Amino acid sequence: MSATINSFQQRIDRADNAAELARAGRREQWGLVALVLPAAAFVVALMVIPLVWLFWQSITDQSGALTLMNYVRIFTEEGTLATFQRTFVASLMVTAICVVLGYPVAFLAAVSKPRTATIIMVLVLIPFWTSVLVRTYAWLVLLQRTGLVNQFLTWAGVVEAPLALVHNLTGSVIGMVHIMLPFVILTLYSSLTQIPADFGRAAASLGARPGRVFRTVIFPLSLPGLVAGSVFVFVLSLGFYITPELLGGGRTVMVSMLVQRNIDLYFQFGSASAVAFVLLAATLLILWLADRVVPLGKILADR
Amino acid sequence: MILLERFHRVAIASTVALILLFLTVPVLIIFPVSFGDSASLRFPPPGWSVRWYQAFLGSRQWLAAASTSFEIATLTMLIAVPIGTAASYGLMTCRMANARYAYVLLMTPMIVPIIIIGVGVFAVFSKMGLVGSMWALVLAHVLLAIPYVLLTVGAGLRSFDMNQEMAARSLGVNRAKAFVTITLPQIRTSVFVAAVFSFLSSLDEVVVALFIARGETTTLTREMFMSIREQVDPTIAAVSSILVSMTVLLAALAYASQQRSARRAQGA
Amino acid sequence: MTRSRAGFDTVSIRALTKDYGVTKALDGVSLDVREGEFVSLLGPSGSGKTTLLNILGGFDRPTSGQVFFGSTDVTLLQPHLRDIGMVFQNYALFPHMTVEGNIAYPLRARNVGSAEIARRVADALTLVELAGYQTRRIGQLSGGQKQRVALARALVFDPKLILLDEPLSALDKQLRESMQIELRQLHAKLGATMIYVTHDQREALTMSDRIAVMRSGRIEQLGTPTELYNFPRNDFVASFVGESTLVPLQRSDGGSVSLGTSRLRTGRPVPQDGPIALAVHAEKLILDSPGEGEDWNRFDGSVSDVIYQGESVKISVRLDDGASVGLRQHCHHRSMSSLPQVGSRVKVALHVEDTILVPCDAESVPQAHAA
Fold first, then answer.
1. Is pLDDT at B45 greater than 80 in this prediction?
2. Fewer CB atoms inside 10 Å of the end CB: C or N, chain A?
């Protein structure tokens, strides 16, 4: 008593039905795609197209002829090359300091009781949500010659005369560390809390002391989050504008400031674009390299 | 996960305390400075006064800038959240293979350095003669907010059980009605957080504003930036403290609602 | 809430295929379900049963083929217009609404008046034995209660067809078994057509009027529980339904079949060509010879394991010609007092009417070892 079916009929049904079904399926899918179009329109109109135009500017000169001069000038002009170097080194410094300062905080928050962890994370989130401008201004106040930091240092006898902590590279770095540190802490915290608590307990039950547990189990497992956070901060520092501009005193020029000056002062889209695209290329290259080591997308999305 | 020996615990805790101090003091210092009676940012100030608040509230320029910033932030939020939510929903439910590329495309404003976006947007709007127009800034801020709305609402959608929408449709409502009556109420926390974020990110945005906002449409951030650069007076401190208080309040609201919904999800 | 189900007879599935790239989730499935019938789709994961259910519900579109409700082609019809009830494995209840809100949802979608809604919600709750639960929140309910609310929600608007996707698999064993019986009674009371997806053969046997056994996107066999159990069409159906062992057999000249050296007698039809196997139901094997007679096939072997399982004992016997069979015996005083020891020699008997022969794929059956 099984279902019998005329196989000839089967073939006919299959033939003229499939096309109609496929069409209906496509219609439904395009309906859903329509939901994505407004957002996509923004990104294409305000980012993709301008970038293409900027790129075109970077490879043409005033008369419209193709030229690589803008790019060549980056590598031949002393000032420009030095700017790139300075930006790169500063970003490295900022990243390194953030990692060193950030890991203990994330670690403590991850191993503490929920109440303590919340308090720590709130104290990290408050500066995170505070405007960059406000924080930069605060550092201006704190780092000036008569500011709190210098007052404390002279009072404690660490130095004899107030240090020049602002309007130079030092000020920029300190300011940038303050801005970037919460990123590293948040990414690391997320990574650390995803390590199952059982892992540490298992290692301990096998005889490992806390130091060894950390070295061999916890730290290695936190590396993806660490790498993701560091890369993100490094890339962010490379392109950072506000803090270096306000705390660097005009003498420490970073790549972003170079771009801004070229546009604002000289209205030279060509050279500004070239610098911008070298920055963009460096950013994408670093992100791509990091993504091969660690699944960046997944980690950063789960913040 | 790890049982620390007492010595280590104390050492780590004190280090972390110092670092947290480093993080929070700058935010807190703004408040006493704003109440200080000194034009030269001396700290501790010689006396206390509210003159910088009066300076801010009495200055037409500052107030105009503040009101422009709020307007722009509100408009940004009102545009970015719906189109971001729609995009997030569309990407999640459509079964096209190219959805991944669309997702990456929509995330790029977060990856491209903001200075480059600023230049690009400036180029577009100066060609259209819209530099200095408020809407130019709104559109630019929406662009910047889209990735974050996608991330936040996307996370909310992913932790939502889509079977409920299927159930609703089997019970007789079409997709749109199912979304409004079933899905949206349950992802409202994510949408709220996305809204707060869009608002705050627009309010605090500096770089694009520096390029585009001019004259009449100057924003709070632009005024503050100029003021800091020219080292004018501690009115900035008063503005900053108001800004910080508002930001922290909104952020706390967003955080609290997120915690509440997480707890509700566990209890359910 | 017994109503007549007028105006809707069979659910017809015609030649459904569903391709995902190169994978064929459904490979030409056809099925007619009569009005008021309870049909189970039984199969392992990946067999296509959930895909089929989703297509019936309208959430998935087939690559080709048609679905008819009565004489209406509903293949392209949107889910919310199909007037079907669906019950999901994880209930899919709306946590932000009360029980009343959930059950009333389909009624509100159909613009039913509020007095009528209240009455029908109360009726539905009574039907699933949760009378008075209107104002409870979903989070306060137990698993079994949630499932009942899901059922009530799917029934309250008198759907023509009810689809159930492994609705009981999230419940523990005791609850599952009692809900199976309740569902069966509910079905009898309502007279609704129900299509039920499960991977649990016992569940399917308990509840269904007919079962469609599925594998790799095709229906292997469609029939009543008795038919499937006693007349499996091939080795897959035989091993999937019921507790049976498959023992490869050899053909000899003259059209006879043997297991190793013993010739098999059977009252059943013998499959014509190809490799065949014996599908042995554990409860049909009898220890020791029940006297002489042509009605029995007898084998010699030794006991390899005796497992006490409460109400029955499972005895594994290694036959002399290499095959291993499982034998199940109910425990009562007489059988328990004569339980064999591991290693002891026994005779095992199978009635000729219980000697089921099925065609098999050469690879799917473990080869007999030389003794």
1. no
2. N
